[in-house]
Amino acid sequence: QLHSDVDKGDGSIKYILSGEGASSIFIIDENTGDIHATKRLDREEQAYYTLRAQALDRLTNKPVEPESEFVIKIQDINDNEPKFLDGPYTAGVPEMSPVGTSVVQVTATDADDPTYGNSARVVYSILQGQPYFSVEPKTGVIKTALPNMDREAKDQYLLVIQAKDMVGQNGGLSGTTSVTVTLTDVNDNPPRFPRRSYQYNVPESLPVTSVVARIKAADADVGPNAEMEYKIIDGDGLGVFKISVDKDTQEGIITIQKELDFEAKTSYTLRIEAANMHVDPRFLSLGPFSDMTTVKIIVEDVDEPPVFTSRLYSMVVSEAAKVGTIIGTVAAHDPDASNSPVRYSIDRNTDLERYFNIDANSGVITTAKSLDRETNAVHNITVLAMESQNPAQIGRGYVAITILDINDNAPEFAMEYETTVCENAQPGQVIQKISAIDKDDPPNGHQFYFSLTAEAANNHNFTLQDNKDNTATVLTRRNGFRRQEQSVFYLPIFIVDSGSPSLSSTNTLTIRVCDCDADGIAQTCNAEAYILPAGLSTGALIAILACVLTLLVLVLLIVTMRRRKKEPLIFDEERDIRENIVRYDDEGGGEEDTEAFDMAALRNLNIIRDTKTRRDVTPEIQFLSRPTFKSIPDNVIFREFIWERLKEADVDPCAPPYDSLQTYAFEGNGSVAESLSSLDSISSNSDQNYDYLSDWGPRFKRLADMYGTGPDCLYS
Q1: CATH 2.60.40.420 fits 307-404, yes or no
Q2: What pTM value is reported for the model?
Q3: Residue 175 gets which letter from DSSP?
């Protein structure tokens, strides 16, 4: 309540209120000065309000005292429960931890005033999770309450923690949160094999590095604590097998290191140890963290292919060897206990030319063709060994046959030489240095000897000097070479090798005479005529040219005339090539008239005319005697028609020499009733009797009157 000393209680003073929350939250009785709150106040929203009050003269509305300021403080009550702002919680603690090991700390906050009473004083307690865990009442630290908690027995716990204000007294407000505690693994379980011994059967044909077996020692731990290593401690298979670990499954993988042979050894025994890689010293008392087991491997016999005594056979043979010469022998045997006989053959994919043969029983390899070292110096062939009792079992042996060289190739020029000699060359001048090659390969290298042939030894133009180093030099013997006299010289050179017996060849060196500059470099080597040859005068040359031109003109005229002769074969639009058609106004009975005439007679096309007329020229109307007909098969009619037109075009001298399209309006021959046209009927030479038309009914009466032979016939 506000009261002014000026106020006498007569109602002359009124009070007004301003400031934070005035009129909305707080109101004042202007007569008495009593201040009231209009709504419920919440200290957690706003704890203080600053207001200003003033007393005014009711009549003049002027202040009777200075404005005064005062503060309204909201007094707290316990109306907010504790809250875990970070909940729910998750935490982990190693298994087998001692009692009192800290797990996690939880914290609850209370919005009430901590400075007033116990409204914000929180106490923690555990509602769920005992007797495994406990919580500190004041700090909220959760700790283990039981020793030797085993993850393998139970790895997760759900705790419910309560925070209560008013120091936990009755009437206090409370809040809860959940805490999930997971026991983390420690290496407290040693590995153990489920069985004391294992046995596996493997075929002897199993390739090296193949997996024989997988074994695993059980370990209840997880992660790095379950990682193991396997070792072969003892046994008779130490060098034959090895064991490694699969990092994903922690299995021991036994693989083969050497090939198995049932005939040599039928079983192996291995002593294998599995041990943890990461051992925790705190749990050594639980026993050794390793275990042993025995693995027995039984080798099974399989039908193996024949085996050669050597992986690679090396043989030599002279290229002069005759067909059937023995080169060498290969041998293979069946490694199985049955020791089946073996037959040999050559894989022809490695001997496509069939240079060699092999005896199927003995394995003796012989030549089948003449050999040439220069074509192929080494032959690599594959020999197949097949069991007689089981042909599917095939062994492979490899043979390298080296061909020994003989002197069977004569030496020759090392290259195609382009030799020139200058017209101003002096005697003894070197014009070419030559060398030779030989396809043979003597063991001591080549040695060639050069000389001129007997025919060329005494020539006066060139000489040859053997340099004794497989080369020779060609020199001039004279000077004064002239292209006009002789532009090319051919020098035969005799080359002999050092083989036994030696071989020789004659090679011809072509030497051209050239015009050279001052430095001896050839400029031109063509034979030029400096003076026009005599014997033909200028008039004779002109006459020859005139004859050539006359012949050309005649050829052009002949070609032009032949083209003009071909033009008439191409019809002009003005020429009339139409067929002449005679039109009759009389009509037959149509499709419904089936009694007047047998229509099948008109459909018989098995006839052909004896005479043919060209359809590619303008037809002329002729009154000829009616042609006769012969009965032939349907498919012959059109074939013979086209064939005759083709022969006519072939023998026609005016036919064009190019492709042309000829159109024939030929639809086949007439029927046995023959033509009804008057173009042929009026011919006096016609011997056809048309009296039967009178028997066809009234519709053909007019035709019968026109063509019949009776007294009423129009033509006699």
Answers
A1: no
A2: 0.44
A3: E
